[in-house]
Amino acid sequence: METWRLLPTGKYSPAKNMALDEAVMIAHSRGLVPPTVRFYGWDPPTLSIGYFQRVSEVDFDALAAKGIGFVRRPTGGRAVLHDREVTYSIVITESHPMMPRSVNESYRILSMGLVNGFRNLGLEATMVSLASEADKEKYESLGSSACFDSPSWYELVVEGRKITGSAQTRQHGVILQHGSILLDLDVDLLFSVLYFSSEKLRQRVKASFTDKAVSIRQIAGRDVTFEEAEQAFRRGFETGLNVRLEPGELTDEERALTDELIETKYSTSQWNEKR
User: Fold this and answer.
1) What is the predicted pLDDT for the residue at 133?
2) In sequence order, which residues have a C-beta less than 8 Å from that of residue 179 and are 6 or more positions away?
3) Could you give the CA distance from residue 30 to residue 79 in angstroms, rounded to a whole number?
4) What is the mean pLDDT of the chain?
5) Secondary structure class of 46 (helix, strand, coil)
6) How many CB atoms lie within 10 A of CB 95?
7) Residue 154 pLDDT > 70
8) Between the CA of residue 246 and those of 7, 175, 235, 242, what are the distances in Å?
9) Cβ(87)–Cβ(48) under 8 Å?
10) Which residues form the BPL/LPL catalytic domain (predicted)?
C-alpha cells in the first residue's frame, strides 16, 4: 500500500488557500514531496470563481457588505461560496500508475475517496455520468454562474442532487483536483453576492439551484462537524484510493512558494479580476 502525505487542516485566507494548493503542485512536480491530500477551511468565508469565469458575474459591493472574501481559482468551474464546508485537494502526477490518461476517468478514480467518505457518514452517494441525453436533460443548468446547479462528469449526487463540486487543473505534469464538500448550504447568501440582470432571473435560477444542490445536513438530518467530516473523508480516501495517508508538514520550499504566490498572484487584481 502506497503512503501519501496528509497535510494538517487549517482555515486560511482565500489567497493562501489557493497559493498552498499550487505550491504543493509545484513541489510535487519537482519530486520534492509525495502525492498529497489536504482538507481545509476558509477565513473569512469566501466566494471563489473558476479560472475562465467572468468577474462581471460577481457583486463586489455585496461581498464587501457581507465581509466575504474573493479569489479566482486556478481550476475551472463556476462560483462557489466556501463557508459551511470541508474543502479537499489532491495533488498527484499524471504519470502515476493509478491515473488514467482521460481527464474524465481520473475524476472517477479520485472521486472514489469522496464516495467512501459519504458512506462513512451513512450517506449513499453515487457518481453521475452525463453519457446519455436523458441524463444531460435531467441535470441541465439554467446557465447560473453558481457551481452545484448541475453535476459534471462523475460528480457526486445524493438522492439525485449534487453534494460536491470538484475541478481540476494540470500543470507541470501534475494533477491538482480540489473541491467542496457541503456541510450546510446558505442559498440566499450565495445568490446575494452574484450579479443578475434582474431580480426575476435571480429568483428563477435560485429555485432551480435549490432543486439540484444539497448539503450533508439536509440529507443526514443532523449537523456534521468539520472534524467529523474530515475524519470520514480521510478514511474514505484511504479506502477508495487504497493508500495510507500519513500526516506531514509543508516543506520550507512549499512555504516560500506559498508566500510568493500570495504576493504575486492570488492577492492581486491582475489575477483575480483578469476576466
Assistant:
1) 52
2) 87, 88, 114, 164, 165, 166, 167
3) 31
4) 89
5) strand
6) 9
7) no
8) 8, 20, 12, 13
9) no
10) 31-245
Cell of 84: 459551511
In whole angstroms, give the CA distance from residue 272 to residue 73: 8
Q: How far apart are the first and last CA of the chain?
A: 44
SS3 25: helix
Q: pLDDT tens digits for 167-176?
A: 889 998 999 9
State the CATH number of the domain containing residue 127. 3.30.930.10
pTM score of the predicted model = 0.90
- Cα 95–15–165 angle (5° rounding)? 55
Is 90 in a helix, a strand, or coil? strand
The string of pLDDT tens digits covering residues 237-254 is 999 999 999 999 999 999
Q: Which of 154, 175, 174 is nearest to 164 (CA)?
A: 154
Beta carbons of 134 and 140 less than 8 angstroms apart: no
Q: Which residues are catalytic?
A: 147
Asked whether the predicted pLDDT for residue 140 surpasses 70, the reply is no
Domain extent for 21: 2-272
Structure confidence at residue 147 (pLDDT): 47
pLDDT higher for 5 or 212?
Answer: 5
